[in-house]
Specification:
four-stranded parallel beta sheet; 4 strands; elongated; alpha/beta; single chain; Rossmann fold; 9 helices; 2 domains
Length: 219
Amino acid sequence: MAEASVPIEVFCCYSRVDKEWLHKLESHLSLLKRQGLISLWYDRLILPGTNWAETIDQHLETASVILLLVSSDFLNSDYCYSVEMKRALEREAVGEVRVVPILVHPVNWKDTPFAHLQVLPTDAKPVSSWRNKDTAFADIAAGIRRVIEDVPMLAASAPRAAMPSIWNVPYPRNPFFQGRERELELVRQHLWEGQAMALSQPQALTGLVLQQHLSREMW
């Protein structure tokens, strides 16, 4: 039986002023979501009571595709431009992520840091300039499908969250352990005495048996 593919995480970076365009894009990407090809994430999905900055940073680091919804408001937003877009392009420069600029409104983007990237829609015609906006978003959805079909190995190499440490004892290790020398000596003696028995008997010296020996020696 073939294993089910893991959806590629797609991060949407946008200005709050352009949220209506984001929702329109989301509806046109719904088929990719239903097919299990992508999981779409943006800041409106942050749960109440969650540290929003840490959550955004986490998804910025784990996404395999990052969409930039470009408009004058996007370029004017310090957070979008100097935080989200900056980090997205840093990851793009080392091959960790695919960054796709989507032109929402006409804007001078030729001198931006993402000017070297191929933009959507086709021919870099902003969505707002299309007579039929659904046609524009259908063109964008088709372009994003081509992108995710081209990055299956990229998704597999996305960074993973750090695993918790195995050492969960509430006190640090003590390299200068002292005390209970008598008990330790009794343990050493019984272990040495048990070496000959171990060759002829299948049973090892268990904790319960060892505790009984120690109790007799101490009392």
